[in-house]
Amino acid sequence: MKNKKVLFAITLFLISTISIAQNKIKAATIMEDIKAGKSISINNSTIIGVLDFTFKNEALKKKSNKKKSSWFNWNSENSTNEIKKIIDVNISFINCTFKDDVLAYIPDKESELTFTASFENETIFKNCIFEHKAMFKYSRFEKNTDFSGSTFKDDSTFKYAKFDSKINFTNTTYYEIATFKYAKFNSNVSFKDAIFKEVATYKYTQFLDGVSFKNTNFKEDLNIKYMKVSGEFNITNMKVDYEIDSKYTKINGKSFNKHLINAK
Prior knowledge:
The chain is α/β, with parallel strands linked by helices. The chain has four helices and 36 strands.
């Protein structure tokens, strides 16, 4: 009987060990699956290595061979030196930790090229932890997108990003400067219960169908200069510990200060 208990304990240990090993996934494996046209659905896992949605190294190889591939968009509307990768599969990460950079934007000094990635289908990074950079500058998200519950421990940017469908940033946390400068939201978006521990920038950001900052906590300055909002503008219990730069901000055609006065 005793031997059976020992054997059972060893079996449980081996199963748990295998489970832990299976929960560590190499970024290179994910990139190969995307390249093969496979949708990504990963839960409760740790991602090891840089996750480069731009596929920069492959793009450079193709460019050096002087054979342009339809897999990349070589002519970008943003700049003549941009090489854009279109991710055309579903992307879903839930309760995942990224140990290295997650990149959909790479400015390469050596080649003087800028590599970006946009997402054609559903894109989910829910309840995830980004331990290093999360770069989504110039990215376009065409379908439903969800970053809710995620934590950004290092630099993050959604500068010039475009969101065509439903988007959720509820309960997100930003440890470093977070920028949504020039971002464009075509659908209602929520930053409810988000925490910004450093400066937050929404300069020139466009919210075309409303935005919620309900219970959002800005621990440093908030820059909403030139920001434009059409539709709902919910700032119930929003807190800003330092300064708000609202110069030229328009809330449904009114200045930020006038909107606050009329809302009382």
